Amino acid sequence: MPSSQTVDSYDTVRDEHRIEIKVKGSRFIATVAPATTKEAASQFIESMRKEFYDATHNCFAWRFGPLGVEKRAADDGEPSGSAGKPILTALEKHDVLDAVVVVTRYFGGTKLGVGGLQRAYGDAAEQCLAEVERRVVHLTRAVRIDCNYEDISLLKRMMDGTVVSCEEEYDTAAHFIAQLPQSQAQDFADQVLAATHARAEVSVDD
Asked: The pTM is what?
């Protein structure tokens, strides 16, 4: 995904969630949690290692940011590419960002091979991500509007169903700070200027 692409929203997880599956005697415990920084992800991973201190492996993956360009996967001693990568693939498949997934394994006595490990780690992560409650993160830009009282009804009609949120203040004039999806902010500002015949003062925050 190109870094120049403008994104107005993305999905993340609302809270921590956990599931467990068993494959040929081995237990795979997948836990997902919200995390927006490497520090937060590292703290969560460390908490999982402490909770499952006696586990054979604690493998993980995370993705940050609206474009998912910051990401990492780790196998924690499993064969290279057999654990972290399928967990990261599950995050990408479910299009979840600002999240970290740790899949803990307790070895059950039967070796699964690289292919079997990939399926087990991937299945655990996917099931966890399929069940977790999500929330939408809206990426907005503020459009500041100062206008006469005669234009308030017009502006409110324009904002209805368009803005994500709006703050209002009234004194000798009306003042609005409208939060719009970032890809639409400048067009909306231009439309306000045109609709009010430039009576309104309009600016778009960076």
From this structure: 0.81
H/E stretch holding 204? strand 201-204
- pLDDT per residue as tens digits for the range 50-81: 999 999 999 999 999 887 889 999 999 999 99
CA distances from 154 to 130, 147, 163, 201 (A): 43, 11, 14, 14
* Reduced 3-state DSSP string for 2-48: CCCCCCCEEEEECCCEEEEEEECCEEEEEEEEECCCHHHHHHHHHHH
Segment 82-140, tens digit of pLDDT: 999 999 999 999 999 999 999 999 999 999 999 999 999 999 999 999 999 999 998 99
Q: Which domain holds residue 179?
A: 139-204
| 84 membership: H or E segment, kind and range | helix 84-93
What CATH number is given to the structural domain containing 158?
3.30.70.240
φ/ψ region of 138 (left if φ > 0, alpha if ψ in -120 to 50, else beta) reads beta
> Domain for residue 130, yes or no?
yes
